[in-house]
UniProtKB/TrEMBL annotation:
Residues 327-336 have a biased composition (Pro residues). Residues 7-143, 154-293 form the UspA domain. Coiled coil: none annotated. Residues 311-336 are annotated as: Disordered. Belongs to the universal stress protein A family. InterPro entries: Rossmann-like_a/b/a_fold (IPR014729), Universal_stress_UspA (IPR006015), UspA (IPR006016). It holds the Pfam family Usp. This is Universal stress protein. The lineage of its organism: Bacteria, Bacillati, Actinomycetota, Actinomycetes, Micrococcales. It comes from Isoptericola dokdonensis DS-3. Gene3D superfamilies: HUPs. It comes from the Bacteria.
Length: 336
């Protein structure tokens, strides 16, 4: 198995302007991480060209794909002055499956997000949504209005207190350090309107704020130990999650958020589906969004065994140190 340092950054190439923006982002990130790029072009076995016309075979489309990959390789060499190594991969089949499979051996997948109409998403789906839902490595979605020259020296991390929050913070601190940027950690939640009629919303908000600050501050302090030079600020808002993250993405270099565990590839017999918050943020963000997948069951088992050894060694664990999800699954909370 390839080590982390040997794993490339995967970029989906289809000749679109969105793919060009993703490629420019990936080149810059490869320079930051001193790694190579794997450019992937995927085509279906057959493509319908009209309701009464025959299907086109994959062979002529493969020729086009090879040309697109060759042109993309030239762009990488030009943007990086030859400093970034490139490999090309032709894949036969759905783009989502090809890119998710390539991501299993990569450190990152970078895609350009192409906004489509509601009808278009219903019938064709979205490559970005599909890869984000299935990938086992982080996926970056580059929005259509993003230009390579944009640099705000600000990274935003969205956390909810769930186990995935530690991984999100780890990725966000590294991203901020690579860019010499400040890190803004955001946690938000709002009671569902239905429950606001049944309880004292002000009391709930005050209690939630106190609890959230304690949990988020502990998570941030733990992650900051390895990155003492990164300036960090925590923001806790009682507000709609998706709207807040989209607003916070304005003027940022990167927004890092987590994906909860129901989307892992092979984890269930039906296609993976992203949560409403993740979909909304990917669709409306003003900056690139990095979605961090949940840890695999193997990683979780290792953590549990380590915890068991700690207990066996006689170290007492304070139940208050175990952070329950903040603003997640409780009534009115919305998870990514």
């Amino acid at each position: 198995m390839a080590t982390t340092s040997e794993r490339p950054i995967v970029v989906g190439i289809d000749g679109s302007p969105e793919a060009s923006r993703a490629l420019a982002y990936a080149v810059r990130q490869a320079e930051r991480e001193s790694c190579s790029l794997l450019l992937v072009n995927a085509i279906h076995e057959t493509v319908p060209v009209g309701p009464m016309l025959p299907l086109i075979s994959a062979e002529p489309l493969a020729d086009v794909g090879r040309q697109l990959l060759a042109e993309a390789r030239d762009v990488v060499e030009q943007l990086s002055d030859g400093r970034v190594a490139v490999r090309l991969q032709e894949a036969l089949g759905p783009a989502v499956e090809a890119l998710a499979a390539a991501g299993a051996r990569a450190r990152l997948v970078v895609l350009g997000h192409r906004p489509t109409s509601l009808i278009g998403r219903m019938f064709t789906g979205s490559t970005t949504f599909g890869v984000v839902a299935r990938a086992t490595c982080p996926v970056v979605s580059v929005p259509p209005d993003r230009t390579p020259q944009d640099a705000a020296l600000r990274v935003v991390a969205a956390v909810d207190g769930s186990p995935c929050s530690a991984d999100v913070l780890a990725r966000a601190f590294v991203a901020a350090e690579q860019r010499s940027a400040r890190l803004e950690v955001v946690h938000c939640w709002r009671l569902h309107p239905f429950y606001s009629y049944l309880v004292d919303e002000w009391s709930v908000q005050e209690q939630w704020g106190t609890q959230a600050h304690g949990i988020i501050d502990r998570l941030v302090a733990e992650a900051a130990r390895e990155h003492p030079g990164v300036p960090v600020e925590c923001q806790v808002e009682y507000a709609d999650v998706a709207d807040t993250l989209v607003r916070r993405s304005s003027g940022a270099d990167l927004l890092v958020m987590g994906r909860h565990g129901h989307g892992a590839r092979g984890s269930r017999p039906v296609p993976a589906v992203l949560g409403s918050v993740t979909r909304t943020v990917l669709q409306h963000t003003h900056c690139p969004v990095e979605v961090v997948p949940p840890r695999s069951s193997t990683d979780t088992s290792l953590e549990r065994r380590e915890a068991a050894r700690t207990i066996a060694a006689g170290t007492a664990l304070d139940p208050s140190d175990v952070a329950a999800p903040v603003g997640g699954p409780p009534p009115g909370g919305t998870s990514p």
